[in-house]
Amino acid sequence: MPGQPLKSIQIEGFTSIRSATVELRQLNILVGANGAGKSNFVQALALLGRIVDGELGLFVGLNGGASALLTDGDGTSRIRLELDADPNSYEAVLVPAANDELIFETEVVYYHEPKYDRPYSKSLGHGHRETRLATETGGPRGGIAKYVFALLEGCKVFHFHDTSADAPVKRTVSTADNLTLRPDAGNLAAYLYRLQTSDAAADQAAYRRIVGAIQLVAPFFRDFVLQPENNDRIRLRWQQQGSDAVFSANQMSDGTLRFVCLATLLLQPELPALVVLDEPELGLHPFAIVQLANLLRQAASRSQVLIATQSVTLMNQFEVDDLIVVERRAGGSTFSRPDAAELEAWLAEYSLGELWEKNLLGGRPAREDFDQA
Ligand SMILES: Nc1ncnc2c1ncn2[C@@H]1O[C@H](COP(=O)(O)OP(=O)(O)OP(=O)(O)O)[C@@H](O)[C@H]1O
Ligand SMILES: [Mg+2]
Fold first, then answer.
1. What residues have CB less than 8 Å from 147, skipping those under 6 apart?
2. Structure pTM?
3. Which ligand is nearest to the CA of 70?
4. Nearest to 1 by CA among 150, 148, 111
5. How many whole angstroms from 36 Cα to the centroid of ligand 1?
6. Model confidence over 42-71: pLDDT tens digits?
7. What SS3 class is residue 107?
8. Position in ligand 1 atom list of the atom nearest CA 71
9. Which ligand is nearest to the CA of 69?
10. How do residues 12-34 score in pLDDT, each as one tens digit?
11. Ligand 1: which residues within 6 Å by Cβ?
């Protein structure tokens, strides 16, 4: 569902991100050294997602409290997040409160009317613990909050790294939990079952595309075996080519299982407005990484996509305009887009990954000059 195009995100005072404005395009590939701040940026997007779910308190608690999230644990500072779309924006300023919590110092929604210089703004209040977007949507000025609510809800961070024995994707789940794919793929079996048994042609086509994409990477894979068991619960099971044996998710290799999650996410009929993934290449063979890049590019033609990666193979599949280079300067993360015109001569001869390895794009580990702080 194409919603409002996201134009940029501004982050201040959040972990290593002292102050950054990052323009968002259809496809956004964050690259940078270990500890540069890629995952911190992804976490800021996850925070926006938890805010709209009314789970700011839970997010802060699970991530080590306000002091772990404020830059340098500074109890006198604040976190400012602004998500700009066309025509709406959202701004939240979060300040530390008792018990290492974060509360809203301000929360504001905006509407940009092209004929006016300044956007119309509406404050949702001060000092509250959870967002007022949901309560505001029913009010007299609910219109803007409603659109902003949808905007934030559309930003979804997914993480499929966990393939341990009790990983969410391996558990049984209610068949009713099938509306959207959960961020941890905990309802993958129920979601695939809905696509497989749906009357809608688009759902069936998506299911076939998902199975086809998996077979490209794992030619031994035949199909899923999706049958509800007791009390309408379902778990992920599958079959190999040339055998009738039915395997559990535990019998799928870690890389294959992650690719199954990625293919389902990126080929689903209705994508979230912004799909966010941190190091989706984890554990994938170079051939599977090339297939993943194809899926990411296809998804970016339907929605906006943002990933962080360390993979030269993955980077090689993209254009210089897709890259955002993350670097540490004086203890803070910086985000910049390489200048395609400046690199034109190099790009004629080398791939993006090769330029990266030659250190022509920046984003390499470097000593930091704290005198400039
Ligand atoms: N509250 C904080 N204040 C300042 N800096 C912080 C704070 N929390 C974390 N950091 C910095 O952020 C770094 C981690 O950044 P992040 O996890 O985003 O790296 P990354 O680019 O994802 O690296 P990798 O490629 O290894 O995953 C830490 O090394 C630390 O320097
Ligand atoms: Mg990281």
1. 4, 88, 111
2. 0.95
3. 1
4. 150
5. 6
6. 999 999 999 999 999 999 999 999 999 999
7. strand
8. 3
9. 1
10. 999 999 999 999 999 999 999 99
11. 15-16, 32, 34-40, 68, 70-73, 310, 326
